[in-house]
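Deliverable D5.2: sample structural annotation.
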Amino acid sequence: MAEIFGNPTTWVAVALAIFIALVFKPAKKAILSALDSKIDEIKNQVEEAAKLRDEAQALLAEYERKQQQATQHAEEMIDAARKEAEDFKVRSESELNANLERQRKMALERIALAEEKALQEVRAAAADLAIAATEKLVAEKVAGVDGDKLVDKAIADLGGKLH
């Protein structure tokens, strides 16, 4: 055993063991506290990441809801525009039909007025012709002062009877 205690390697090993034992106790606390702080830091980062993930999911849900509402609003606007266009079409067709009917009636009235005017002109021409023919016949058949009086009286009566 004296050889073990006399050997310098043994004493170096013992000194190293004592040194490690003495250094390990304070270093252990520092190492453990560094590890604990690193664990706490990692926990905080994980909690922050979870919190950010939850916020992101909430924002995503909110934006999806807003997108759905915007889509629904757009569909409602399209439906309203279609209905308005259909109403406009019906109203326009109705107005067009009313205008066409009014123009047709006005054209028929103009035709009727033109027919009436033509008929009056024909009657007037026929009356004038009849008067002229009567005057000519009476003038040929009736002569003298009595004839002139009779012709004047017939002409005056004829104009009142025709109109």
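Annotation notes: Residues 2-162 form one domain. The chain has one domain: 2-162.
The annotation will be released with the project's public dataset once the embargo ends.
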